[in-house]
């Protein structure tokens, strides 16, 4: 930090002896229904992980403390506003700044954090809790053991075809925070690609890919129909890992900032399925896992509904998945739709009419238990109202669920009617956690085909901040000179173009060796939410 025009403020809880003007009051903050603590996890710099407990106000926003480290909002010299995890004794400089995320919100974002001067990748994610007593007592469990494995090689040195298939790997990943809406959602494990598990979300795949020219390996979120070229590549991260990294993602050719973060979901399979688009309207909706049928998972409509989603073995031995009337399983009356499959979970496509079915045919989407790190505050399940904090006058409505969570249960919604154009990115996000039979869940409706205009058909990225009722827009720089000026302002640098870019790269931890100056400047600018060009 260290770029603020005035001396760092004293917190309201330790303001005795200071002038009244030097420390904002926390009267409004104390009355607000905001989290009493945040739990930080996943940071490579281990001391940054753990519980940060609310204690006073800093620059008009709640302040959270974890011994030597503070979680605070800070305005730098250019007027840009960031949330930081930083050393409390070094707030007048950028020494001791470990992680930060650009945001003017009254509460720290849960995802999207980047590495500051003294941090190390990966950056953390946050979860909100009602108070310190509600926080976990230890960081989240380590990722599955194959997450850090190098690929297995055969005797000739080639990568084996079925790497990691017998490892303890997640059944799905949940992506959130991506500017391209279709990139967010649940990616379900389905086969392998390039010797590593493959995860699918409709038109988009989460896969590991080897660049033939250099031999380097990357994990991608990419269009499944354009894997032979870099068109349709949205986000990527360089990694030999057998599983996709959960942070550190950057923009690929058609990506738009910000990039997503990932979270592993349970390996036990889906908690249930959503059926949508079926011609028999009563068949649409959620089917939750409830027991077994013929040694295979059984999924039932809530409230003792009429229909079950089950696998059934015919007298001759062939197996089908059915959507059928639970009271007529001994005959074909009440059979609506079926698909031939001996899989342990129902196929997502390929359904056909059974005896009593009506077109159109259904599509189904799996959902998974919501990861604990994404869970809302237990003591405050309803969304927070508008809150005015401190003297800055920023008004913000924020629910403690990440961008990308589904806004509603997708019941009886035709897949072809789903909007494919990118949605505007708003500074105020109001989302609702989906709950099926008492279980918070995450899901996504798969996009069908490539959106009109391509994946990167967004308007130019513009940041908009509500301050004292006025909207101020900052156009994103595109030329080298504009990007260097951005770095001067954001990091308080001076000197020639090369000196500014080199110092920015050093502060931001970007490897500039062997790269053109323009590319290094673009990588540095990307840390502030600017798309590379």
Q: What Rg, in angstroms, do the CA atoms define?
A: 25 Å
Strand order of the largest sheet: 23-22-21-20-19-18-17-24-28-27
Helix % is under 10%
| Overall morphology | globular
The largest sheet, given as strand count, sense and whether it forms a barrel, is: 10 strands, antiparallel
Describe this structure in words.
By secondary structure, the protein is mainly β. It has four domains: 12-134, no CATH class; 142-277 and 362-470, no CATH class; 278-361, no CATH class; 476-526, no CATH class. 7% of the residues lie in helices and 31% in strands. It is built from four helices and 30 strands. It has helices spanning 27-31, 480-491, 497-508, 517-526, and strands at residues 37-41, 50-58, 61-66, 69-75, 81-87, 97-102, 114-115, 125-129, 172-176, 185-193, 196-201, 204-210, 217-223, 233-238, 250-251, 261-265, 272-276, 285-293, 296-300, 307-313, 319-325, 335-340, 352-353, 363-369, 387-388, 395-396, 434-436, 439-442, 462-467, 470-475. The strands form five sheets. The chain has a ten-stranded antiparallel sheet, with no helix packed on it. An eight-stranded antiparallel sheet has the order 7-6-5-4-3-2-1-8, with no helix packed on it. An eight-stranded antiparallel sheet has the order 15-14-13-12-11-10-9-16, with no helix packed on it. A hairpin with a 5-residue loop joins strand 20 (307-313) and strand 21. Helix 2 (480-491) crosses helix 3 (497-508). The longest helix is centred in the C-terminal third of the chain and has 12 residues, at 480-491. It is globular and about 80 Å long. The two termini are 27 Å apart. Mean pLDDT is 72; it is low at 3-32, 141-151, 375-433 and 459-476.
């Amino acid at each position: 930090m260290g770029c603020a025009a005035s001396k760092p403020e004293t917190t309201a809880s330790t303001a005795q002896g200071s002038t009244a003007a030097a420390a904002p009051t926390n009267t409004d903050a104390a009355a607000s229904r905001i989290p009493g603590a945040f739990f930080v996890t996943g940071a490579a710099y281990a001391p940054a992980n753990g519980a940060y407990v609310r204690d006073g106000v800093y620059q008009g926003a709640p302040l959270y403390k974890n011994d030597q480290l503070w979680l605070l909002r800070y305005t730098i010299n250019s007027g840009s506003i960031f949330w930081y995890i930083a050393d409390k004794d070094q707030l007048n400089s950028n020494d001791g700044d470990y992680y930060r995320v650009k945001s003017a919100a009254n509460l720290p974002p849960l995802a999207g954090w980047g590495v500051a001067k003294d941090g190390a990748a990966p950056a953390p994610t946050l979860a909100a809790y009602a108070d310190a007593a509600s926080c976990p007592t230890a960081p989240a469990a380590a990722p599955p053991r194959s997450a850090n494995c190098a690929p297995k090689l055969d005797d000739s040195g080639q990568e084996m075809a079925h790497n990691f298939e017998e490892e303890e790997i997640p059944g799905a990943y949940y992506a959130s925070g991506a500017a391209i809406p279709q990139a967010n959602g649940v990616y379900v494990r389905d086969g392998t690609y390039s010797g590593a598990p493959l995860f699918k979300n409709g038109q988009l795949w989460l896969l590991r890919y080897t660049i033939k020219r250099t031999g380097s390996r990357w994990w991608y979120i990419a269009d499944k129909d354009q894997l032979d070229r870099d068109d349709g590549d949205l986000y990527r991260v360089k990694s030999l890992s057998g599983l996709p990294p959960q942070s550190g993602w950057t923009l690929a050719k058609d990506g738009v900032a910000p990039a997503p973060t990932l979270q592993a979901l349970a390996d036990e399979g889906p908690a249930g399925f959503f059926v949508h688009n079926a011609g028999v309207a009563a068949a649409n909706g959620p089917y939750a896992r409830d027991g077994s049928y013929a040694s295979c998972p059984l999924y039932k409509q809530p409230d003792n509904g009429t229909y079950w989603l089950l696998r059934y073995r015919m007298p001759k031995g062939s197996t089908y998945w059915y959507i059928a009337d639970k009271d007529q399983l001994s005959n074909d009356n009440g059979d609506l739709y079926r698909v031939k499959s001996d899989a342990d979970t129902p196929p997502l496509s390929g359904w056909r009419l059974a005896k009593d079915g009506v077109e159109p045919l259904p599509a189904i989407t799996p959902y998974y238990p919501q990861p604990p790190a994404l869970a809302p505050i237990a003591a405050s399940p309803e969304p927070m109202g508008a809150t005015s904090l401190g003297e800055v006058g920023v008004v913000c409505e924020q629910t403690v669920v990440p961008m990308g969570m589904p806004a509603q249960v997708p019941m009886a919604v035709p897949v072809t009617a789903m909007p494919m154009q990118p949605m505007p990115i708003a500074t105020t996000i109001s989302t609702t956690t989906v709950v099926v039979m008492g279980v918070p869940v995450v899901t996504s409706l798969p996009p069908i085909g490539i959106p009109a205009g391509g994946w990167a058909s967004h308007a130019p990225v513009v940041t908009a901040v509500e301050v004292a009722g006025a909207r101020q827009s900052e156009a994103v720089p595109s030329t080298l000179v504009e990007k260097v000026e951005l770095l001067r302002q954001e990091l308080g640098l001076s000197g020639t173009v090369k000196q500014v870019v080199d110092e920015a790269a050093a502060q931001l931890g970007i490897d500039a060796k062997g790269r053109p100056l323009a590319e290094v400047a673009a990588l540095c600018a990307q840390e502030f939410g600017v798309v590379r060009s």
